[in-house]
């Protein structure tokens, strides 16, 4: 069975299977195991974080442009800035969803691994597998922590963006634009922290993926 056929079957299984156990069993029959799903979900989360980084940077640039726009362009500026905010919300939600999928698959993988360890009859092989499980769980926990930190960092950024977008919406005048200057440096700092944490999470994700592969 070639890769494209295998991928098509896997996609159909994931779409149609309502029971998690049935889904996993069906996927394993075409050569796709929980560890493969975990690696794929970690990769998806990493990619979503990269996209979120780009979106937040774009939004920060837009804030800077709004500050420089004169009163006559305020309404148009609000529309563009509100679009950036909504795109940032979508990007943040995508990151959270991907992290949730990583957690679901990892939980199932580690549970199965632990149950299978109990079936060993060779004590040496059993002990080695237990050590490998603990090591993998520890590396996964570190990676997940950086993902969660990056996820938590998005909220204050989105809160600041939302507040300023609403303020522009309610005022739509030069005074509102002037008030943005007082919070722009704060927003810039928050986004800087967010991007740094995402970089750490992406690096840990890449390390986890390379070790699993």
Helix vs. strand class: mainly alpha
Return the average pLDDT rounded to an integer. Answer: 80
CATH class type of the largest domain: Mainly Alpha
State the shape. Answer: elongated
Percent helix, as a range, is: over 70%
Report the portion of residues in β strands.
under 5%
* Total domain modules: 2
Radius of gyration: 23 Å
Let me know the number of strands. 0
Give a quick account of the main beta sheet: strands, pairing sense, barrel closure: none
Runs with pLDDT <50, length 5+? Answer: 1-7
The helix count comes to 6
CATH architecture of the largest domain: Up-down Bundle
The third-level CATH topology of the largest domain is Four Helix Bundle (Hemerythrin (Met), subunit A)
N-end to C-end Cα span: 21 Å
Order of helices and strands: HHHHHH
Summed up:
This protein is an all-alpha fold and 213 residues long. 90% of the residues lie in helices and 0% in strands.
In words, what does this structure look like?
It is built from 6 helices and no strands. By secondary structure, the protein is mostly helical. The chain folds into 2 domains: 1-32; 34-212, Up-down Bundle (Four Helix Bundle (Hemerythrin (Met), subunit A)). The two termini are 21 Å apart. 26% of the residues are buried.
């Amino acid at each position: 069975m070639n890769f494209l056929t295998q991928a098509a079957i896997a996609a159909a299984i994931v779409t149609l299977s309502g029971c998690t156990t049935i889904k996993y069993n069906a996927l394993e029959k075409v050569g796709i195991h929980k560890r493969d799903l975990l690696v794929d979900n970690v990769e998806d989360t990493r990619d979503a974080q990269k996209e979120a980084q780009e979106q937040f940077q774009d939004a920060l640039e837009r804030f800077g442009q709004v500050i420089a726009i004169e009163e006559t362009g305020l309404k148009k500026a609000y529309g563009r800035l509100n679009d950036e905010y909504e795109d940032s919300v979508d990007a943040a939600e995508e990151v959270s969803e991907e992290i949730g999928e990583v957690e679901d698959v990892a939980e199932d993988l580690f549970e199965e691994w632990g149950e299978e360890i109990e079936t060993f009859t060779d004590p040496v092989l059993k002990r080695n597998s237990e050590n490998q499980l603990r090591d993998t769980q520890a590396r996964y926990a570190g990676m997940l922590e950086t993902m969660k930190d990056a996820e938590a960092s998005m909220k204050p950024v989105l809160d600041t963006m939302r507040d300023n977008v609403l303020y522009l919406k309610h005022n739509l005048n030069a005074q509102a634009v002037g008030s943005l200057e007082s919070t722009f440096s704060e927003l810039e700092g928050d986004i800087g922290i967010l991007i740094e944490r995402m970089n750490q999470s992406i690096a840990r994700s890449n390390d986890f993926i390379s070790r699993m592969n």
